[in-house]
Specification:
The protein contains two helices and 25 strands. The protein has about 400 residues and is mostly beta strands. It has a single domain, classed as Tachylectin-2, Chain A, CATH 2.115.10.20. Strands 1-16-15-14-13 form a five-stranded antiparallel sheet. Strands 21-4-25-24-22 form a five-stranded mixed sheet, with no helix packed on it. It has a five-stranded mixed sheet with strand order 20-19-18-17-23. Its main location: secreted.
C-alpha cells in the first residue's frame, strides 16, 4: 500500500515508467539455505466452501473456540510458467457510517477458518485504519457486516495493509499492519471476535533499520509480511523505491528479536519492484513463491512472481514481465465486465492459516484491490474495491 504524497501522479508516473526498459533485470540479494519443513503444529486448513473436508479437532487450536476444517488431499501439481485468471465483479465495497465515511477498501488479507472467510483490509477516509468482515461464501461478501477496528484496542490513528495468520506455537492469531514509522501487531485468541484484538505493539524496538534508512530515498516503508519455517520467522517489507527488505528472528523469539535486515531483492526501476509483496510456501514442492506489485508502462498496477528453494532465496523468475505476468489486466478475463485495469495489493487464499503461509499450487484464488479505470486524483482517495481472481489454467 503506497503513500504517494511526494511521488508522481498516475499520469506522470507513466512517463517515468517507460524511461527504463522493461527488460531491466532485478538484482537479487539472497543467501542460499536448505528449504525448511513446515512447523509441526499446523491448523485450520483453508478449504474453499465447495470442498467437502473433514471436521477435526487439533491440539494446535487450544484457545480457538471451534473445530477446524481440513481440505482433502489433492493430486500433486505445480505452478505453471504462465498464468490465466477469471475475475469476479466487485465483491467488497466501502460501507460508510457516521464516523467512517470511507471512500476505499483495499490491501486485503484473507484466511478460511471454521467454514468462513475472514477478511481484513485497509479503509480510507481522511486517513487509514483497518476493518474486518466475515462470510461463509463469496456470494455473501457484499452484504457482510464491516467491523471497524479503531473501535477495538487497536485504536485510531494510522493503521494499514494488514496480514493475518495463526501463530501455532503460541496458539494466537496475529494481525500485522503498518503504522507509518514501524511495523506493528495485535493478537487475538478468536479471529471471529473483532473486539478480541490487543493494543498495538511494535516489531522494531529501534524503529526503521539503518539499511532501510540508507536506501528508501523518497519512498515509504510499507506492506509488512511475515512467514516462518521450522526454525525462523522472516519479516518482509517494501519501500516504494525498488527494494524488498527481509528481517529475521528465531521461531521461539517471535514476535521479538527481528534483526539482520538485508535487501532481499532490488530493481533499478522503482516501479518494477514497488510494494505489496506476498511470500508463500508451495505445498508438496519444497519451493516458495514470491509475488510483488509493480506499476506498468501503462501506469496500471500488476504482479510479478518468482520461486525459490528457501525463504531466503535465491529467486528465479516465474512470470515477471508485462507480457507474461503473474496477474495483470492482459491475463485476466472479466465475465461480468472489466471493472478494473489495475490488479493491485491482495492475497492468495491459503491452504492453511498458520505461520508457514502454505498454498496449494492448484486452482489459485487471489483476493485483490481494483479500481474504476476512469478514476483519477490523489492516490489515497481513489475508490478501491475488492474482487477475486480464480486461476483458469491450473496444471492439477
Amino acid at each position: 500500500m503506497s503513500l504517494l504524497r511526494h511521488l508522481p501522479s498516475r499520469r506522470s508516473r507513466l512517463a517515468v515508467a517507460v524511461v527504463v526498459p522493461l527488460a531491466a533485470v532485478s538484482a537479487l540479494t539472497a543467501v542460499v539455505t536448505p528449504a525448511s519443513a513446515a512447523a509441526e503444529c499446523s491448523v485450520a486448513h483453508a478449504a474453499p466452501a465447495r470442498w467437502q473436508g473433514d471436521s477435526n479437532s487439533t491440539p494446535c487450536t487450544e484457545g480457538v473456540s471451534t473445530t477446524t476444517t481440513t481440505a482433502p488431499r489433492q493430486a500433486a501439481g505445480s505452478l505453471p510458467s504462465s498464468f490465466r485468471w477469471s475475475s469476479s465483479g466487485i465483491l467488497i465495497s466501502p460501507k460508510p457510517d457516521a464516523t467512517h465515511p470511507n471512500v476505499a477498501v483495499k490491501d486485503p488479507s484473507v484466511v478460511y477458518h471454521n467454514g468462513r472467510y475472514h477478511v481484513f483490509a485497509s479503509t480510507y477516509t481522511d486517513g487509514y485504519n483497518l476493518m474486518y468482515t466475515s462470510f461463509a461464501d463469496w456470494s455473501q461478501a457484499s452484504s457482510a457486516t464491516h467491523h471497524y477496528l479503531d473501535r477495538t484496542a487497536i485504536g485510531g490513528g494510522y493503521k494499514a495493509a494488514p496480514q493475518v495468520f495463526y501463530f501455532a506455537p503460541q496458539r494466537l492469531w496475529y494481525l500485522i499492519y503498518q503504522t507509518g514509522s514501524n511495523a506493528s501487531y495485535s493478537t487475538n485468541r478468536d479471529i471471529a471476535n473483532p473486539q478480541g484484538w490487543s493494543a498495538p505493539k511494535n516489531f522494531y524496538a529501534d524503529g526503521m533499520p539503518k539499511i532501510i534508512q540508507d536506501n528508501i530515498g523518497d519512498g515509504y516503508w510499507v506492506d509488512f509480511w511475515n512467514i516462518c519455517d521450522s526454525a525462523k520467522c522472516y519479516l518482509f517489507s517494501s519501500d516504494d523505491n525498488g527494494h524488498l527488505y527481509r528481517s529475521e528472528t528465531s521461531l521461539s523469539q517471535f514476535p521479538n528479536g527481528f534483526t539482520n535486515t538485508v535487501i532481499a531483492m532490488q530493481d533499478a526501476d522503482r516501479y518494477r519492484l514497488f510494494e505489496a509483496a506476498n511470500l508463500y510456501k508451495i505445498r508438496g514442492s519444497g519451493q516458495y513463491l514470491l509475488i510483488h506489485e509493480a506499476i506498468g508502462s501503462d501506469g496500471r498496477r500488476w504482479f510479478r512472481s518468482w520461486t525459490a528453494p528457501a525463504i531466503t532465496g535465491p529467486w528465479t523468475a516465474l512470470a515477471d514481465t508485462e507480457d507474461n505476468p503473474f496477474a495483470r489486466a492482459n491475463n485476466v478475463t472479466f465475465p461480468d465486465g472489466a471493472w478494473t485495469r489495475d490488479i493491485s495489493h491482495g492475497e492468495v487464499v491459503r491452504t492453511n492459516v498458520d505461520q508457514t503461509m502454505e498454498i496449494s499450487p492448484c486452482n489459485l484464488r487471489y483476493l485483490y484491490q481494483g479500481l474504476d479505470p476512469g478514476a483519477d486524483g490523489e492516490y489515497n482517495r481513489l475508490p478501491w474495491r475488492l474482487g477475486l481472481l480464480t486461476q483458469t489454467n491450473s496444471t492439477c
